[in-house]
Amino acid sequence: MEAGLIMKELKLRNLIKRVLVIAPKSLVDQWVQEMWNHFNEDFTLIIPESAFKYLGHKNVWNLFDLIV
Fold first, then answer.
1. What kind and span of H or E run contains 19?
2. How many angstroms separate the first and last alpha carbons of the chain?
3. Rounded CA gap, 17 and 62, in Å?
4. 7-47 residue pLDDT tens
5. 46 near 20, Cβ under 8 Å?
6. What phi and psi, each to the nearest 5 degrees, are found at residue 47?
7. Among positive and negative, which fits the CA dihedral 19, 23, 29, 31?
8. Contact, 30 vs 7, CB < 8 A?
9. Which pLDDT does position 19 carry in this prediction?
10. For tag attachment on the chain, is the N or C end more exposed, with fewer CB atoms within 10 Å?
11. What pTM was computed for the model?
């Protein structure tokens, strides 16, 4: 929750545009849901082993601003 509050404050001040959350696989769905439920932030869930299969060699960071 604290990370979400800090993120919102920095976004409101236009100090950040992109956010990358690195979390254990067991918590990534929870991160995505909590960022949406509490902060109305739509994070994209990227699982490394499947990302390359669907995105090829594209730079994921250039495709999405909010990534878990």
1. strand 19-20
2. 15
3. 12
4. 999 999 999 999 999 999 999 999 999 999 999 999 999 88
5. no
6. -100, 115
7. negative
8. no
9. 96
10. N
11. 0.81
